[in-house]
Amino acid sequence: MRAVGLLGVTALCVGNMAGTSLYTLPASLAATVGPLGLVAWGLTAAGYALVAVVYASLGSRYPRAGGPAVFAREAFGDLAGFVTVWSYWVSVVVGNAAIVTGVVGYAAGLAPALERHAALRFLLAQALVWGLCWLNVRGVRHGARLQTAIILVTVVPLLLLTGATLTAFDARHLTPFAPHGTGALAAGAALVVWAYAGVESATVPAEEVRAPARTIRLGTLLGYGVATVLFLTLALAVAGALPNAVVASSPRPLALAVATAVGPWAGTVVSLCAIVGGIGTLNGWTLMAGRVPVSASRDGLFFPQLARLHPRTGTPHVALLVGTAVTSATLALYFTRSLLAVFNAVVLLTVLLTLLPHLLAMAAELVLARRDPARYPPAARRRAHVVAPLAALFVLYTIYGVGLEVAAWGTVAVLAGLPLYWWRRRATDAPARVRAS
To answer: Can you tell me the distance from the alpha carbon of 231 to that of 238, in angstroms, rounded to the nearest whole number?
Structure first.
């Protein structure tokens, strides 16, 4: 049953983008590129405008649950579909560990006991990931309503407090502007991809969306627009309110910037918004973890058990439970690193595993626009021939920015899935060979 309308889809996109990226990412950017991070925000916003247009086009023309994997398989076949769903699914379930880490980091600022004890942080993180798993097993409407409420509650106070913080902007905090050189811009853009991961969210639960052709297209573009306004405003406020070294060393940079400019009470409000907004983001990506493998599993590319639906709620409960279990296991990093170090380590790997599905989706738009004239009228075909290649070039640039070490680990993660693909193919082809004989 189609249950989610335009408001819910837009909230899903905004929530999946504007979560921990707003509150924690400025510290990672400050450490990696310095104030040049402002240019990285602008560059990535421009690149993702193209990516958003492509996903709006694909999602409205091929409204099947699964998002990027559906488009890659439609254009390039089973292997491309598997690589996409595997890479994207791993990025989601591992990335959820970074999201909940951002939430716990802000909670630790309000509860000193969490700051002192890794075990308490670990238990809180586990409670959050499993609690939201349970909510999403109950049904997509419950998760969508929570997402919408959280966006409405957090965005307004954030914009008001950020506006007040901008009045304390000090240009001296932007010098030196590029302490690591302009060559660090690619690494900064790669980090900002973490913020824009989620622009494709409307395409994933496509079969549970009302009027999908219109809703997916508008929800994707509106979500991109709202999130971009938030990103650029908050990035400017943080960079102007604090010295770069202070931003780089704080697990709660936005709260610290607002508290410095407005007062301690405002920092507390931002911390509360960070916790609530982060829970909304985790909720949205938990929903995604359940929906991403469904179509691929139905088609025999992925484990068929992940396509099983709950007999009462109709949700992919097995995929939700398995994905949450992987996230839960990743949280063991809490006992080996600081919260900010855990966040940074998980983010870059997740970014790379997100960019590969993006690249395949951009290529799929170009191929399908040429192959499927029934879905692409002449104007849409001409637009695809311009927008898709430009978006692909941007994605390649950010892949370059993640660095060789992360690229190597990402390659290992993707290659680790290939034996599973061949094993599934053998299992799927065996009954056909028996019948043929």
So the answer is: 11
In sequence order, what are the beta bridge partners of 209?
A: 4
Question: Phi and psi (nearest 5°) for 24?
Answer: -115, -35
Contact (CB, 8 A) for 410 and 352? yes
DSSP 285-330: HHHHHHHTTHHHHHTTSS-GGGG---TTT---HHHHHHHHHHHHHH
Residue showing tokens 């499993």: 130
Q: Comparing C-alpha atoms, which of 355, 413, 414, 375 is closest to residue 64?
A: 375
First to last CA, the chain: 41
pLDDT of residue 344: 67
At residue 141, the pLDDT reads: 60
pTM for this structure?
0.83
Nearest to 359 by CA among 307, 394, 335, 327: 394
Pairwise CA distance, residues 270 & 23, whole Å: 9
Q: How far is CA 130 from the centre of its chain?
A: 19
Give just the sign of the alpha carbon dihedral 320, 322, 327, 332.
Answer: positive
Residue spans of alpha helices (H) in 139-263: 140-166, 185-196, 212-241, 244-248, 253-261
Q: Residue 251, CB half-sphere, CA atoms under 13 Å: how many?
A: 22
> How far is 416 from 187, CA to CA, in rounded Å?
25
pLDDT the model gives residue 3:
62
Structure tokens at 123: 């238990």
For residue 144, what pLDDT band results from cuts at 50, 70 and 90?
low
Closest CA to 35 of 139, 147, 177, 163: 177
What is the C-alpha separation between 236 and 289, in angstroms, rounded? Answer: 32
For the cut 90, the answer to whether the pLDDT of residue 358 exceeds it is: yes
Q: What is the DSSP letter of 4?
A: B
Task: Using DSSP, state whether 209 is helix, strand or coil.
Answer: strand
